[in-house]
Specification:
With 479 residues, this protein is α/β, with parallel strands linked by helices. 31% of the residues lie in helices and 24% in strands. It folds into three domains: 178 residues, FAD/NAD(P)-binding domain (3-Layer(bba) Sandwich), CATH 3.50.50; 113 residues, FAD/NAD(P)-binding domain; 107 residues, FAD/NAD-linked reductase, C-terminal dimerisation domain (Enolase-like, domain 1). Strands 1, 2, 3, 4, 5, 6 and 16 form a seven-stranded mixed beta sheet that branches. A hairpin with a 4-residue loop joins strand 12 and strand 13. Helix 1 packs parallel to helix 10, helix 3 packs antiparallel against helix 4 and helix 3 packs across helix 8. It starts with a strand and ends with a helix. Belongs to the class-I pyridine nucleotide-disulfide oxidoreductase family. Keywords: FAD, Flavoprotein, NAD.
Length: 479
């Protein structure tokens, strides 16, 4: 049944993940009436099937890896992890897949929630199919923000539906470790889930089509992760992928590899990329192609749709597929929507509140493996491809006193890229236990365009791993 009454709001947000929540928070705080439409759990992928549960699985694994190398602790932690306790911790961190707290937060922020599947039906119009079978018609005075995120992209493999493979959702929410797990992929999901499930009792085989793990990062990052995965028993294979796979009547997964090899597993995880959740949000009604990335400019406006009313925020626009970056975009989009609603001119300055500059210049990322990997800005490959003149400085983090204190036998590496003409940092990558906490300093240096000569005066405390900043400067720019 379709309701006759059209509900009108200043802003309609489709999708109540962290991105949609943040857009709505900004527009509601600006005094704009805002409704959020969500067909699943409020809190989205990050809260229930990605960031929160995956890090809850990995944190005990990484703590134990550190403790095993620490005098006085190694013997105490030699026993396997308590898998039941780790999974219970994961469940708590995922709020047991209930969104009551996040629904309450929306209400406290003055944001209305409408449960159901939202689709564009025309300019500033959205129809919502509710769980009860009704269709509610919505109209926006100023803006519609599509914040529907992304989903796992499965390969075009014959019989994949009958195979019932894992995606990142199943990998982060499984209730027990599969005895034998095949992971297909070389990126962040692949290496993090290999790290977690191997430690929790699975025998893991990791298949990479290319010749390296984490291929979008500096090569040494993938090399260190590969070395450690193999040390703990993961069978890492390069130059191969799945040619065919089927699930037998007794539940086994039988895999034929592209190199002719064969594997038998209990589960198979495809960690082979992401695709936009844009196939069923009514893009065709505003002249766009369903299923494509919903491209947005630096103000998060969908420029291909006239009128400056349609916004694409977070993963669905393909700009930078990270929760923190989506929330950053949400802050920008919220400010843009509020400014336009007030009739104000946008500030188009490079680092203004109305421009998502960091999406292209300073996107931070942490891979929670052993060792941890952290990066922001350009890699050497990206700089060369862009024709940027850079100086590259490397340092062995294991030589820093704070790293030795962190744990004996510390293995890690740091790299910064410095623009040769402007003398500012434009990229940084750190590999080693605990380096995720180094990342924000690098991000600040890049966004702030801090000259190398000024960085000399940012004195790191001794003995901390952050002393690597001083060593990098001494190595590359000693007077």
């Amino acid at each position: 049944m379709t309701t006759d009454t059209i509900r009108t709001y200043d802003v309609i947000v489709i999708g109540a993940g962290p991105v949609g929540e943040n857009v709505a928070d900004r527009t509601a705080a600006a005094g704009l009436s805002t409704v959020v439409v969500e067909g699943e759990l409020v809190g989205g992928e990050c809260s229930y099937w990605a960031c929160e549960p995956s890090k809850a699985l990995l944190r005990p694994v990484l703590l134990r890896a550190d403790a095993l190398r620490m005098p006085g602790l190694g013997e105490a932690v030699k026993a396997p992890l308590d898998t039941t306790a780790v999974l219970a911790h994961r469940d708590r961190m995922s709020a047991d897949w209930k969104d009551d707290d996040q629904v309450a937060w929306l209400a406290s922020a003055g944001i209305e929630l409408l449960r159901g599947h939202g689709r564009l039906t025309g300019e500033r119009e959205v129809a919502v199919a509710t769980p009860g079978g009704d269709v509610v018609q919505l109209k926006a005075r100023y803006a519609v923000a599509v914040c529907t995120g992304s989903r796992a992209a499965l390969p075009d493999l014959p019989g994949i539906e009958e195979l019932r493979p894992w995606t990142s959702r199943e990998a982060t929410s499984a209730h027990q470790p599969p005895p034998r797990l095949v992971i297909v992929g070389a990126g962040v999901v692949a290496v993090e889930m290999a790290t977690a499930w191997q430690a929790l009792g699975s025998r893991v085989t990791l298949l990479a089509r290319g010749d390296a793990l984490l291929p979008r990062m500096e090569p040494f990052a993938g090399e260190l992760v590969t070395e450690r995965l193999r040390e703990v028993g993961v069978d890492v294979r390069f130059g191969t992928t799945v040619a065919a796979a089927r699930r037998t009547e007794d539940g086994e997964v039988r895999v034929t590899l592209s190199d002719g090899g064969r594997l038998v597993a209990d589960e198979i995880l495809f960690a082979t990329g992401r695709a936009p959740r844009s196939e069923d949000v009514g893009l065709e009604t505003v002249g766009l192609s369903p299923g494509d990335w919903l491209s947005a400019d630096d103000s998060l406006t969908v420029a291909k749709v006239p009128g400056d009313w349609l916004y694409s925020v977070g993963d669905v626009n393909g700009r930078a597929l990270f929760t923190h970056q989506g929330k950053y975009q949400a802050r920008v989009a919220g400010a843009v929507i509020a400014a336009r609603a007030r009739g104000e001119q946008l500030d188009t300055g490079r680092w203004s509140a109305h421009r998502g500059t960091a999406d292209t210049e300073a996107v931070p990322a942490v891979v929670f493996t052993d060792p941890e990997i952290a990066s922001v800005g350009l890699t050497v490959r990206e700089a060369e491809r862009a024709g940027r003149a850079i100086d590259v400085v490397d340092y062995d983090i294991g030589q820093v006193a704070g790293a030795v204190q962190h744990r004996p036998g510390y293995r890690g590496r740091a790299r910064i890229l410095v623009d040769r003409d402007r003398r500012v940092v434009v990229g940084a990558t750190f590999a080693g236990p605990g380096v995720g906490e180094l990342l924000h300093s690098a991000t600040v240096a890049i966004v702030g365009e801090v000259p190398v000569d000024r960085l000399w005066h940012a004195v790191p405390a001794f003995p901390t791993i952050s002393e690597v900043w001083l060593r990098l400067l001494e190595t590359g720019f000693r007077s």
